[in-house]
Give the backbone structure.
Amino acid sequence: MSTGLITQETCPSTVDTVTLGSTSIPKTIFGCGHQNGGDFSGIESGIVGLGRGAVSFISQIGGYLVGGKYFSYCLVPNPAMSFLSNNSNATSSSMMYFGRPNTSSGPEVVTTPLLSNGVSATQTFYIVELQGISVGANNITLNADAKAFKGNMIIDSGTTLTYLPELLYDSFKSAIEEELKDRDLEVKQDPTGSGLSCFLIKYDILPGPNVTFHFKGADVKLKSSNTFVRVDDETVCLAFSRGSGVGTYGNWAQINYLVGYDLENKTVSFQPTDCTTS
């Protein structure tokens, strides 16, 4: 998973013992760096690498996990940027679980295969197949490029927005704007200057539209709090942007989902969950 970290100067790695619960994992490799940059505030104590690479944290500890290589996380919303009117859970923390006892299971769980496109530059990423997106009550389906490699989306907890291939994004944005036009929401300029598609908000909780991401074998239904991000008191913006090539399914779309990665069976699952209470 990408983190946005840029390291200009590295220092020697360190080997140490990691303890998770009652399990001690010896000879775990830790890296370090100086003059690091990226989208960080400066108070972070480090980054946990969860990608598919040989030296990522999950790859190193996989042999010690109960039930094999499996991890999951449950991301809480940022009250200042979401439509959840109850800010009493502002101090809730996102949770991460290692091992199969915390796998996603139940009637609401949907699962899609993890794929590999054979390109070495992307081998550390978790890639899935996005087959289309539905927007609104009329179930408008926006088909992804059928000619492209089937693995066309990266699932990433280190990227905030979801980036869609250019043509797919343009169709998606148009469908959203058409739905919001019926709700008397007017388009406005992005006050952050980031080029996002923004709207003048008249409600504490935005009334739709319904958005469903159709991954292979898994329909993930997004709430308004996954689809939009609040940027000021009167402005909301799509938590999506235009990308190129392989798209990225960012962490805003994953809020209040228990997202589980089964690295042995090569699947990723999504389970709707109130992460503030999990």
Confidence is low (pLDDT under 50) at residues 84-89.
